[in-house]
């Protein structure tokens, strides 16, 4: 994921543009295919960020988060065409309905949760058609087009993928209709398989699978846990924010918050090894996803469960360049364990 432009918790030695370009180059050097560019009203515009990443790297593909309320689908398609013209490569779209209800209301978006996903379905169908070079002629509830076609349209746009983020019944239904890749912040594997994967496949989804998760790994398990504790200290403010998220409209934020509170209350015996799946980073307020923490083999074994189930995209949350070698060792252990 691209670095944050500003933080209340830390000061940055370098300016944002320098850090952004360095992050893109480091991801490419690590052998990773893409980088997530989030949409946040209080961050730098994701399309400007994508352009800087294109200029700084050779083949890295930005995964640009797009909220349908922020720009119409024909504009998103035109931005992808401009990117392809400038850099000779596609970019991918991460369609998000919006996690913060208060933020949506402040910008005039008064649709409820399921209505936002109805809009996303229309949005995704139009965007996909335009990227494929099709003529769009439709009269929908949210978007209307009359014999509209994207021009110019570089052929590389046929390689653009639509990612749909979410885990609610509404998002699963939309993913079935428009997603090339469906992404979720996964629960522990048995729960994720039962409550997310099986309903998704039962609903007829045949596309690719992705998970968004953080990884803190090291040769020694104790070193990984020391890094995780230092990087994501628990605070009173973080705990209060987690409690507030237990009533969030966003289904995966709500579920992770409930699980994070339960994890903190559960405790463990003094000689008991900590679970590799960890919600402490989420509970700290400094990360939006669960983490896998432990030795390369610990993390690899746990991640392999998702890979064996068909996950082909791992979107990393909260990594630093110094982590990349250890993350790659954990990913290698996961692929080996999964037989990939």
State the shape.
globular
Task: Characterize the largest beta sheet: strand count, sense, and whether it forms a barrel.
Answer: 9 strands, mixed
Q: What is the overall pLDDT average?
A: 89
**Poorly predicted parts:** none
Number of alpha- plus pi-helical segments: 13
Give the DSSP E fraction (strand runs of 2 or more residues): 15-25%
**Structural class, judged by helices and strands?**
alpha/beta
Termini gap: 25 Å
Query: Tally of extended strands?
Result: 11
Instruction: Please provide the ordered H/E string of secondary-structure elements.
Output: HEHEHEHHEEEHEHEHHHEHEHEH
Percent of residues in helical segments? 40-55%
Write down the Rg. Answer: 20 Å
Tell me what you see in this structure:
The chain is of the alpha/beta class and 340 residues long. The protein is built from 13 helices and 11 strands. Strands 1, 2, 3, 6, 7, 8, 9, 10 and 11 form a 9-stranded mixed beta sheet that branches.
Brief descriptors of the model:
340 residues; alpha/beta; 13 helices; 11 strands
Give a brief outline of the structure.
The chain has 13 helices and 11 strands.
List the helices and strands and how they pair.
Blueprint: H1 16-29, E1 34-37, H2 46-56, E2 61-66, H3 73-87, E3 92-95, H4 101-106, H5 113-131, E4 136-139, E5 144-148, E6 162-165, H6 169-178, E7 181-184, H7 189-202, E8 208-218, H8 221-231, H9 236-245, H10 251-266, E9 277-278, H11 280-284, E10 291-295, H12 296-308, E11 311-316, H13 324-338
